[in-house]
Amino acid sequence: MVLKSSAELELMHEANAIVLKTLKVVAEAARPGVSTARLDELAEEYIRSHGAMPAFKGYRGFPATLCTSVNDVIVHGIPSPSHRLKEGDVLSVDCGVIWKGYYGDAAVTVPVGAISAEAQALLEVTRECLQRAVSVARPGRRLSDIGEVIQTHAERHGYGVVREFVGHGIGRALHEEPQVYNFGPAGRGPELRPGLVLAIEPMINQGASGVVIDEDGWTARTEDGKLSAHFEYSVAVTHNGPWVLGLERT
Ligand code: MG
Ligand code: MG
């Protein structure tokens, strides 16, 4: 595990501020009739005009700036000019940038127009899973304590926790050690230490946890065809507690 200096954390904060602003731009543009490729263009323009580089484009051959994952797509959906958003969709947007040699990575799931009460509940609980996980990212806690709070909160609502994809350390590489599982039990793995930065990213299914991958090799869907939601922050463990990079310290 790579621990970052305070100067490095400042750069990663700047990287993630660009990511979070990009997600805001995309969320505001995510209306019925807009294609996911158009959202990708908006994101790439925003990132490049602020002096950063898209991190996902070309990563292991991924073709776009964003992952746009609609409804039963869990993660890694590929933006397409022929995929237009519809009223009632839920859209996960995942974005990464490179800024001065450091990576930022975050994701949000947003409603397209008016969505069902069931879909709204899934989004709220998944956001709460992330918030609870962030609050655990402090010195002295163990790595798997993060996954335990995510699993407990999701399963309390009858949702399935995706096992095939995990969060990760982040810094000068997009994916560093350790892997951050979204399930317990608590009390396992290394102790969290100041300077560790983790991309924490619960992926929560409305139904069962099973995953299938499309023939494109990327698009990951729920096996049962039900909805999935995904939220992610890059979080620094500090002496003062968790710092969600890209947001001002509280
Ligand atoms: Mg991400
Ligand atoms: Mg990530």
What keyword list fits this structure?
250 residues, alpha+beta, Creatine Amidinohydrolase, 4-stranded antiparallel beta sheet, 26% strand, binds magnesium ion
User: Biggest sheet: strands, sense, closure?
Assistant: 5 strands, antiparallel
Quickly give the structural class. alpha+beta
N-to-C span: 26 Å
Binned strand content: 25-35%
Strand order of the largest sheet: 8-7-9-14-15
Segments where pLDDT lies below 50 for 5+ residues? none
CATH evolutionary superfamily: Creatinase/methionine aminopeptidase superfamily
**What is the number of helices?**
4
What is the number of strand segments? 15
Helical content, roughly?
Answer: 25-40%
Shape: globular
Indicate the CATH architecture. Answer: Alpha-Beta Complex
What is the H/E order?
Answer: HHEEEEEHHEEEEEEEEEE
Radius of gyration, whole Å: 17 Å
What is the total number of structural domains?
1
CATH class division: Alpha Beta
| Mean pLDDT over the residues | 98
The set of bound ligands, ions and cofactors reads: magnesium ion
- CATH third-tier fold name: Creatine Amidinohydrolase
